[in-house]
Amino acid sequence: MLLATRGKERELIFYSILFLLAGFLILQQAGIISSFPVVHIAVISIAFLGTHGLMAYKRNNSDSYLLALVFMLLSMGLIFLYRLNPLYGEKQLTWMVLGFIVLWFTIFATKEYDKLYKYKYLYIILGLLALLTPILFGKVVGGAKSWLAFGSIKFQPAELVKIFIVIFLASFLEERKELLTFGTRKFKFLTLPDPKYLGPLLFMWGLTLVILLFQRDLGTALIFFGTFLAMLYAATGRLSFVLTGLALFVLGAYACYLQFSHVQTRVIIWLNPWPYIEGKSYQIIQSLFALGSGGTYGSGLALGYPNFIPAVHTDFIFSAIGEEMGLLGSVAIMLIYLLIVYRGYKIALQAKDTFSSLLATGLTSMFAIQTLIIVGGVIKLIPLTGVTLPFISYGGSSLLANFIMLGLLINISHKDRENYE
Amino acid sequence: MNRNVRHLFYLMLSGFTIIIIYLTYLQAYKSEELLTHQANKRLLKWENNVLRGTITDRNGQVLAKTVSVKGAKERVYPYANITSHLIGYNSLRYGKSGIEKRYNSELLGITQEELLKNFVTRVDEEPGRGNNLNLTIDIELQKLAHKLLGKDRGAIVALNPQTGEVLALVSKPDFNPSNIDKLWQQLNTQQSSPMINRTVQGLYPPGSTLKVMTGAGIAAEETILNKTYDCPGYLKVGNYKLNCTGVHGKVNFFQAMAKSCNTAFGLMGLELGKNKFFNLAENFGFNQEIPFDLPVAPSRLADLTQLTDQELAQSAIGQGRTLVTPMHMALMAAGVANLGKIMEPFLVRQITSPEGRVLREINPQQYLDLMNSNTTANLTRGMFEVVKSGTGRGAKVTGYDIAGKTGSAQNPHGVTHAWFIGFAPVQSPQIALAVIVENKGLGGKEAAPLARAIFAKALNKEVK
Q1: Lowest mean pLDDT among A98-112, A202-216, A300-314, B19-33
Q2: What pTM was computed for the model?
Q3: Closest Cα in chain A to B6
Q4: Which of B9, B15, B34 sits opposite A293 (nearest CB)?
Q5: What is the distance in angstroms between the Cα of B1 and the nearest Cα belonging to chain A?
Q6: No. of H helices and E strands in chain B?
Q7: ipTM associated with this complex
Q8: Which residues on B lie below 8 Å from A322 (Cβ)?
């Protein structure tokens, strides 16, 4: 009976494992991996099913689709990383195992997550400090000074800080919800929150942005900004706040455009990459070629040429999937992300208290915005930014942060349904 | 607050939807375009795996094929220079031209339908195979036309006026497509521009050959049988003196054509007036892209603001600002031959799968409807006189009735271009052509004999 309550989840997880089996089989046939990785598959299966079993055992009533959806993404990501370079696959697998440990830890440690609520200022300070460390001690990678290196392991604090910020925002907004919604001042025709209520918030948020800009991590800055606006809207319902925020964004973006030459480059190659095929727009052009060459049905796993794209294992992994799995594959992936977003917002809607709801909304919005930004960038719908595709891109920090987010969402969902059977 | 969260969800939902729509645009709609883009290196890899299709002439003679040479693949052109512009080159480094370019997707078998099939064969380690093309070209005529131009620069276009099938397409100077990589630099810097396909990209003043069009304009206006023109050897247009090829005295329409009288046709142009003349030209295919397997440069003439009486008289005799492609002139001749209807020219008759199954068959299609049969009858009569007793006697072939028009186009580079356009036999035309020999002299002397040889060969063999 324990296991029956999460039956649907178990069923879906089996599909992910099947996918892994089929994927590794193909990779072996194609000669990309030398032998069928029984151990790896076993490890992953234990991780997937183990988590599932643990949840069932603990009578965790959280959303039964979330885990399964994420596991499917993990499987897809792992197969493709192995396909691109087995070394990346191995590393990612290691991070994944670590990620599962982090997941369990989060679920266990933050069961009473509302206690987080009390320490909000602590987070924000920790967060800012964490953001500063790369500037002081860190390495420059790809034009962005946002990495810390420990030997051969690279870590990006910004990923974790994002979560802190959301927690901080959730508690801050929860506390001041009514104040912000009704304590407004009119600036001409604009209804804006009274600055004294918004003060600390703006200060924190502004500081974060400045640090990110300093690190040249514009993608993360964009995500922060978007998440902030989303949470503000969720808390107050005031469209005018959002519109003002957007206006500020446009101004800010324009200022960045004028100030930073690499922003100018990004915009140029977004508007018309074709004159620079051999030069600055090489990467995005190759991405378009990959996606287009895949066509509707894809070239087939291991039969395409995704390695023409620079940095294909991180930012552009979506294009590799698009080439080999075709339109069917890329749309399927988008639908999985959409479903996760859907479940996330559902958790927010069903949450019993405002803080939980805000937290879930913030995490889900952040997840959605990040996905939209990176996919939009690699298909040239919007300019490119250097953020990762959650759960699929190669990168330990991103993976861990997303696992923490998953853990929090599960806890919120479970708490809400605690008394269901 | 719940309402707000819902709003956020809808917002994200629209974002995802937009992305999905754009993905469909990229991966379904634009797929072939992106896959076959010059800069997409996948094609290079692919081409190494696919056996490019074979190109044959209308009688099955191989014009291009891919053979395996010591494990590697090589594209072989049995007729080298003779078919150079028409087939084009196929270079991994420099791209493609001609039919090799235009039908690249078909030759590699990468139209959407074939995509899936060829991927499957790739997995099996068997090279996929592209499709084969069967052309309208008659290699015997092509060889002859190529030989006739000799060392001169120029172009010859021959086609079937009833269907639009192109029988011969020769441009000189030419090149050997098999050596394209080695010769590229040299070929592209040569002053004579051997890489240009003069049949469709060469723009020349048509000279007297355009009188066919001017004549059509007048014939459509009024009954011309009794009209006469007085030629003292020149035509005075305001302050300008248009010289004629001789003092012809009183001539009727047919004599004017036969003798290629500039005075008469200049007067005809003035009689039409600039508006009618301009409309006539556009109806005859000027200022537009002629639909064809290879890109055709639009023929052009002075626009209405530039058509002063002087320019009008000059345009009427094919000088002034008028420029045409040899393909266009061949089509004009074909139009007269085919009772006023120009058929769309085409080079590819059939596309077949490697196993021989016909994938696509191209059927004749009408392109322009220029004039009624009354007008064509009169024009034909005039053009017949040209060859029988006029400037085009050099094109006569015993036993057949030939119609044509000569031209000696003045141009800024010295000696006149020698032109001849025409069709045969008059009773039931099988072939229409245009010949131009650059800077060679008189059309009747230098171009008509070339046409004669081509007519003779084509008619003796009764081209089907």
Answers
A1: A202-216
A2: 0.65
A3: A345
A4: B34
A5: 6
A6: 17, 21
A7: 0.92
A8: 23, 27
